[in-house]
Amino acid sequence: MPTLIRFLRLLSIVVWVGGIIFFAFVLAPVAFSVLPSQHQAGSVVGGALRVLDILGLVSGAIFWLTTVLLFRESDPAHKRRYEIQLLLSAVMLLATAYLHAGILPAMEQDRVQSGGDIEAAAKDNPAKMHFEQLHKRSERLEGAILFLGLGLVLLIARESPPQTQ
């Protein structure tokens, strides 16, 4: 059972962080360079981000729960590292939930209020200006989630292998 828990824990963080890396460095740049309009690319990227957030929430919950199980079974000398990992993953989960339930719906509302195509709206359109603010916030938040996730991967890489008896 401990091997299954460690496997699920590792897989969950790999899926979450790997998904963010793929999204940021492959999907979004390719969509904006290949699709004929920014509106179409934004639709693809926005849809993919909603799926990525759900994947992150599920993966994050699995990571958090499996880390709790390892924490409960660990000796006192190793509890601190799990506490740090639980804290980092909780921040990542909260940020992902905020992005998914707060920022993305507000961006979609701004897009609709600006006539459906945010790029076609006038620069002084209040909905467009708010959209741009939210877009910057979402980029920073996703970057922070990635940074924390890479920190978790580093902490996991530094863990001692389990002792066999």
TrEMBL record:
* Major subcellular location class: membrane
**Sorted UniProt keywords:** Membrane, Transmembrane, Transmembrane helix
On whether Membrane is a keyword of this UniProt record, the answer is: yes
Query: InterPro entries, per this entry?
Result: TMEM205-like
- Coiled-coil regions in this chain? none
| Residue ranges of the TM segments | 7-34, 54-72, 84-104, 141-157
Identify the GO cellular component terms for this protein.
Answer: membrane
Q: Where is the TMEM205-like domain?
A: 11-109
Please name one Pfam family that this protein belongs to: DUF4149
- Name its cellular compartments: Membrane
Its name, as the record gives it, is Putative membrane protein
